[in-house]
TrEMBL record:
This is NADPH-dependent ferric siderophore reductase. One of its GO terms (molecular function) is oxidoreductase activity. SUPFAM superfamilies: Riboflavin synthase domain-like. It comes from the Bacteria.
C-alpha cells in the first residue's frame, strides 16, 4: 500500500477497527543480518489463513507495508513472519526496532489465494521477500501429502538462511544486471529431466525476476493456468 494522507490512515484504524488485530511481539530472532523472524500473539479466533495470506503494518504516519505470514496457529493465538530488512525504508526501520513485548496494530490476513491443492507437485521461485510464503506453502503441501521444492535467488549474505529454516530448495546468487537468470538456468536443467513440467508453479518476489521466470516457463511448455505469481517489490517502486 503506497503513501496515503495521515488523516485517512487514522480513519482506517478508527472506523475499521474490526479489520485490525492488536498484536504483541512474543519473540524475535535474526537468521542473518537482513532476515528477522518475529512471532506475534493476538486473538485469532475466527481469522482465516491460507498460504500467501498477508497482513499490513502501519510503518509510519503515512505508510503501510504488507508482509506474508509464514506460520499460523489459531488455537495458540500466534503467527510468524520472516522479514527481509533491506534498509532505506520505513518498513525496514520498524521491523528492526520491534522487540519482545511491543504492541502493534496489524490488519487481519488477506490477499490472493495462490495455493493449488489439486496438484501433487509444487515448485517455488522467489527471493528474500518470499521466505514467509515458501514456509507456509511447504507446510501446507506437507500436511496434504504433496511434494514442494524450488529455487531461491539470494544475496550472498543470506545463503545460509534456507537450511536454518529447513527448506528443501536450491539457492542461486542474485545478480542485479540480469535478474533471475541463474534460477532460469537451473529450471531448464530440471525441464530436460522432465520432472516438474506438470507442477504448480509459484513465482514471488522481484517483479523483474518473476517476469523472466514466467516467460521461461511458458517457452518450456508450461500452461499459464499452472503458473501463479505475486510481485512483492520492484526497483524504483515504493509500497508495492
Amino acid at each position: 500500500m503506497p503513501y496515503i494522507p495521515k488523516w485517512i490512515a487514522d480513519s482506517m484504524e478508527n472506523l475499521l477497527s474490526s479489520k485490525f488485530l492488536n498484536a504483541i511481539v512474543k519473540s524475535e530472532v535474526y537468521l542473518s543480518p537482513e532476515i528477522k523472524n518475529i512471532v506475534f500473539t493476538a486473538n485469532l479466533e475466527g481469522i482465516d489463513f491460507y498460504p500467501g495470506a498477508a497482513v499490513n503494518f502501519r510503518v509510519s504516519p503515512n505508510d503501510f507495508r504488507h508482509y506474508t505470514i509464514s506460520a499460523f496457529d489459531r488455537e495458540a493465538g500466534t503467527f510468524e513472519i520472516i522479514f527481509h530488512i533491506h534498509g532505506n525504508g520505513p518498513g525496514s526501520d520498524l521491523v528492526e526496532q520491534l522487540k519482545a513485548g511491543d504492541h502493534i496494530k496489524i490488519t487481519v490476513p488477506g490477499g490472493r489465494k495462490l495455493y493449488n491443492r489439486e496438484k501433487e507437485h509444487h515448485f517455488f521461485f522467489g527471493d528474500e521477500t518470499s521466505l514467509s510464503f515458501y514456509a507456509a506453502l511447504m507446510r501446507e503441501t506437507g500436511e496434504n501429502g504433496q511434494s514442494c521444492t524450488g529455487v531461491l535467488e539470494l544475496l550472498e549474505q543470506n545463503m545460509k538462511v534456507p537450511p536454518v529454516l529447513g527448506f528443501d530448495v536450491v539457492t542461486v546468487l542474485k545478480t542485479s544486471g540480469n535478474p533471475g537468470w541463474q534460477a532460469i538456468a537451473y529450471l531448464q536443467t530440471l525441464m530436460e529431466q522432465g520432472t516438474i513440467l506438470h507442477s504448480a508453479f509459484y513465482l514471488t518476489g522481484n517483479v523483474a525476476s518473476i517476469q523472466g521466470f514466467r516467460k521461461a516457463l511458458k517457452h518450456l511448455g508450461v500452461s499459464s493456468k499452472n503458473i501463479m505469481f505475486q510481485g512483492y517489490w520492484a526497483e524504483g517502486r515504493i509500497g508495492l
